[in-house]
Amino acid sequence: MSQAIRFRPQVELAEKVGVDLKKVRHPHYGRYLEEFVPGQVFVHPRGFTFLRAQMEAFSRTYMQCNPLYLNDQYARASGFSGLLASPQMVFNVVLSLGVQNDSEKAMANLGYYDAQFLRPVQAMDTIRSLTKVIDRKERGAGKPGIVTIRTLGINQNDQVVLQYERKIMVAGQGDRPPTTPLPTSADGLMPSFPWVDDADVILPDFPERLPAGLTGPNSWFEDFAVGEVIVHANGRTITDEHLPLTYAVGNTHPLHFDRVFSSGLSGKMSGDPIVYGGLVFAWLEGLASRDVSENSIWELGFTEGYHTQPSIAGDTVAALSRVLAAEEAPGALARQFGVVSLQLIGVKNISAANALAKYGEDLFIKENDKKEMGKEKIEEKIFEIERRLLIRKRS
Amino acid sequence: MSQAIRFRPQVELAEKVGVDLKKVRHPHYGRYLEEFVPGQVFVHPRGFTFLRAQMEAFSRTYMQCNPLYLNDQYARASGFSGLLASPQMVFNVVLSLGVQNDSEKAMANLGYYDAQFLRPVQAMDTIRSLTKVIDRKERGAGKPGIVTIRTLGINQNDQVVLQYERKIMVAGQGDRPPTTPLPTSADGLMPSFPWVDDADVILPDFPERLPAGLTGPNSWFEDFAVGEVIVHANGRTITDEHLPLTYAVGNTHPLHFDRVFSSGLSGKMSGDPIVYGGLVFAWLEGLASRDVSENSIWELGFTEGYHTQPSIAGDTVAALSRVLAAEEAPGALARQFGVVSLQLIGVKNISAANALAKYGEDLFIKENDKKEMGKEKIEEKIFEIERRLLIRKRS
Amino acid sequence: MSQAIRFRPQVELAEKVGVDLKKVRHPHYGRYLEEFVPGQVFVHPRGFTFLRAQMEAFSRTYMQCNPLYLNDQYARASGFSGLLASPQMVFNVVLSLGVQNDSEKAMANLGYYDAQFLRPVQAMDTIRSLTKVIDRKERGAGKPGIVTIRTLGINQNDQVVLQYERKIMVAGQGDRPPTTPLPTSADGLMPSFPWVDDADVILPDFPERLPAGLTGPNSWFEDFAVGEVIVHANGRTITDEHLPLTYAVGNTHPLHFDRVFSSGLSGKMSGDPIVYGGLVFAWLEGLASRDVSENSIWELGFTEGYHTQPSIAGDTVAALSRVLAAEEAPGALARQFGVVSLQLIGVKNISAANALAKYGEDLFIKENDKKEMGKEKIEEKIFEIERRLLIRKRS
Question: C-chain residues within 8 Å CB-CB of B226?
Fold first, then answer.
């Protein structure tokens, strides 16, 4: 099972080997606009083994309150085989693994669409990520274009755990050298890409009696009334922690951890490293969790997600939720659960209560729709998304 | 064991659902003075599964030197079934889980009393926390009152692992809306609260030969002489790390991680987020550990613990210990162990040696006793407590 | 297996025990120049149990891209019994455990030599560290001397996993009290020190088919041409995270986490805590990993490693690699692997590409050789080392 090998002793070599400045390689990852080819599939590098302590650390960092992600006993009593990776972590990891191919040269993340969590991720699951290029829209010479991609997270049993669509803004190559090409696949064929338009969600058979006593009093299915606004009391100041947290989920974009790079940019992104948007989403979801998802049994997915302003270390983020729908769950699930749709809004450097007092219903209008409505964008607003959860009934 | 469920595709809803600013909920946690009812028992939310890597991460963050918490082999050779959660972590977690009910509206933590660690906590133990309100002292209209509570940490086998008493200063409700009420218990009865006044400590049967060679030369039972002062050489600068560390142990008080909240306060607590006191205690204990507890086999408990000044990111904390007693352990334990009582003192932004040179024996007088004695409080002093440990004998 | 013990209730003692300022102990660790005795062996305290989540956290913090350290499945498919601790982590831990005896009083780390990784470290391995004093060079009264030491990392089966040599600069004791003496060994004999000059490396029997598809396209053995320079695109801004990261690997030197100590020094090291050099090395290696070691199967070792400038929080580090040799692996290994020698250079607060443009081949000359060559030292250059890796062949 093991072998003993004798290598030659290492001797100093540097001064004996001449430096040849004509032989310099500059490997660059990501892709310029022209390099995206619709139909192309990227198998992203490395993969990611989910470990129990790391799953819990993620949930704690982002202030998650649902015990499914914090309490192994509770997760088991809920029908899962142990502590669950939070869907937020799954989303963050699957997106981040793809950055090296999808967006390490992107200028902006434009939106998340139709994200669906299809299966639990648990300790020792190893997830890999694949992306298919759906569309490339050029907008004229010298202008960045828009690329639409779909991404899958796939576990070690080749089962899809997450799928979502994303639009990114990407500049053309200009006079820059091309990026490092993809590795070629072993068989020379394009890898398969098992996206399913009308996908089943694989859930455990939930026990008759779900665990009691460890969750809040006001976040059961019956507590959600359509139209209602829920103001989440606490905010979270983001610190420099976000630099290491970026690669903790596998994201390789230097905008988030390389100040020499970020301060060399021009425009809105210039200066301190920008917080990777997935982390901002995670904090907002966590801040909301005590009031809306402590009794959630499954995060179904989200869509129409937009980061409307960047955040940097020192910013304090806060969240509000609005109830968009509250419906019976399909089939037998309806005995124990309902489906709640929520709009999640993020603000920064203002408390959620003050943001609501200051901006009222305008907080809940998509920022991109405002110009047409003759309304101003809200500077303190950083995020908007719609999400759907399967939530326990009280009875 | 699992089921496949088809949910309706998620469609955008936000613009179709009107915002009703008359239906706004502001869930608030913690409790105002009037909301505490002596005799009431709170079952705190979420619980906390202790994971091995997280236990070790805690010990490393707070600079713990006792190998029981860092070296699985050493812990096994000492009679435990594997790496031990440090009592500091157990204390931090049990207190923090209770913040949502006990002190998320508290103005100050006044003191810790009679903390007793009754059983080991090891990897995969899930701990829940319960609090009983013992006393509520009002001090007149407009003045904050003092609430006395007792808290238990209980494992998945319903065994108490920790119990302690705490006093907190809480403001009245005034014209603020009430906080979110407790969830009602399933049976409508007050939960039981198994505090034991004269509790046994459950310890392993220690092996005849305890492990040798990995601990310091000067912290065996025989090294402690009553009256002696031990100056711990190294300090620790606290960074912004304390914001995420707060919820890493489950603490939900925004004073510790929400700068919009903390800078909106008036008085001494206004400004940057205050370091949660449990973390300060943990650092001080860790800084002392190399000199006093590397050969400790059990932390019995502590009492008369006071945070006499707050700390913020950027502060450097340092510690001194004073030997208060060194006694034989009870019964057969006396062959291998003695009981050492220590006073632990914390200072900030001065080295421990300089603090001793500057203030001498006044460092060891409780700050609250000084007024009566005609003495000034010490501005650099941040903490004082008495602790008791079971420490190995050299032979 | 367990025992129930009743201890006397803890009562307050502090005010009853007088403070005796004549009985003050100041335990100090590390060693002054005169305290090093060639031939002496130190068994370092505590040891370190490697945990899976902690191994992965290390790799992520330092931006490691080789899936051996991130993907349990990939590591198994490569012939290992599970996720591998990165050699960087093993090096950081073994060195750090020794700081308390070797260098907690050191003024500077002068160089690393002849480091050899002899065996995999995997989850639940417990590593202890031993040091032997090889040489002590005094350079006259009042001048710091140079101590040469060798250090071993040894696992729970008494197998050496790492050995290396190190030179440190240490001041004499002067009029300071001596440091805390070593614990005496149980048998009174000097502990054995199994350094092997011409050591075998113990590797698994690698499978015929190694895993495909998760590593980069340009870092296979065939991609390395002698003389070539590889510029690693991304840098990493180091934050205050480095304070806790220091003791996360076991390092107890206050220069790295105690601002009262670091700002009290005079000279170049005065001010903010200096980043522990092992961490800087780890970041540089991680930044290079995507381009040079993603297809490495084993890190053989390194030598002639020098930290040529210190780093502090806020510095952004970046890396370049130069190919010094590319040779067939010995014996049967040659079918699948080659041995690549690389020079790794670190710079700060300048991008790697700009550093190369600015300094050209001078970047690759050892800083200590420059005076003799009539060249200036490079202020932005922080590190230089030669490393050797076993790298997969493409075919």
Answer: 17
For A19-86, where are the alpha helices, taking DSSP H only? Answer: 52-61, 72-77
Are the beta carbons of B130 and B154 closer than 8 angstroms?
yes
Share of chain A above pLDDT 90, in %: 93
Distance of CA C260 to the CA centre of its chain: 25
Q: C124: buried, middle or exposed (CB in 10 Å: 19+, 13-18, 0-12)? A: middle
What pLDDT is attached to residue C227? 95
Q: Is B28 on the interface with A (CB under 8 A)?
A: yes
| Test mutation, B197, B214, B321, chain C, max C CBs within 10 A | B214
CB atoms A244 and C239 under 8 Å: yes
User: How many CA within 13 A on the CB side of residue C258?
Assistant: 28
User: What is the average pLDDT score of chain B?
Assistant: 96
**One-letter amino acid for residue A239 of the chain:** T
Chain C residues 196-235 with CB within 8 Å of chain A: 198-205, 212-218, 225-235
CB C107 within 8 A of CB C144: yes
Question: Tens digit of pLDDT for each residue in C191-242?
Answer: 999 999 999 999 999 999 999 989 988 999 999 999 999 999 999 999 999 9
CB contact under 8 Å between B215 and C46, yes or no, is yes
Binned at pLDDT 50, 70 and 90, residue A267 comes out as confident
Which of A267, B223, A1, B325 has the alpha carbon at shortest distance from C13?
B325
Question: Which pLDDT belongs to residue A183?
Answer: 74
Q: Is C122 on the interface with B (CB under 8 A)?
A: no
DSSP letter at B147?
A: E
Q: What's the average model confidence in pLDDT over C151-169? A: 98
Task: Please check whether residue B60 touches C, CB under 8 A.
Answer: yes
C370–chain A Cβ distance below 8 A for any pair: no
Backbone phi and psi for residue A75, each to the nearest 5 degrees, phi listed first: -65, -40
Check C27 against B291: CB less than 8 A apart: yes
| Contacts with C259 from chain B: Cβ below 8 Å | 235, 237, 314, 316
Residues 126 through 155 of chain B touching chain A, CB cutoff 8 Å: 126, 128
CA angle A196, A198, A204 (to 5 degrees): 90
As to burial, measured by CB atoms within 10 angstroms (0-12 exposed, 13-18 middle, 19+ buried), residue B5 is middle
Q: Do C316 and A186 touch (CB under 8 A)?
A: no
Q: Which of C41, C182, C164, C172 is nearest to C106 (CA)?
A: C172
* Contact assignment for A237 to B247 by CB distance below 8 Å: no
Query: Is A351–B6 a contact, with Cβ atoms under 8 angstroms apart?
Result: no
pLDDT at C1: 77
What is residue B11's predicted lDDT score, i.e. its pLDDT? 96
Asked if A200 lies within 8 A of B54 by C-beta distance, the reply is no
**pLDDT exceeds cutoff 80 at B53:** yes
pLDDT (tens digit per residue) in A364-389:
999 999 999 999 999 999 999 999 99
pLDDT given for residue C270 in this prediction? 85
Tens digits of per-residue pLDDT, A109-142? 999 999 999 999 999 999 999 999 999 999 988 8
pLDDT recorded at residue C269:
79
Is B228 within 8 Å of C259 when comparing Cβ atoms?
A: no
Q: Is residue C10 within 8 Å of residue B300, measured between CB atoms?
A: yes
Answer yes or no: do A6 and C200 touch at CB < 8 A.
yes
Q: Which residues of A touch C71 (CB under 8 A)?
A: 46-49, 126
d(CA C137, CA A150): 64
Question: How far is it, in rounded angstroms, from Cα C172 to Cα C186?
Answer: 30
Q: Chain C contact for A374, CB < 8 A?
A: no
Residue B182 confidence class, pLDDT cut points 50, 70, 90: confident
Provide the whole-model pTM.
0.97
Mean pLDDT of B202-219: 94
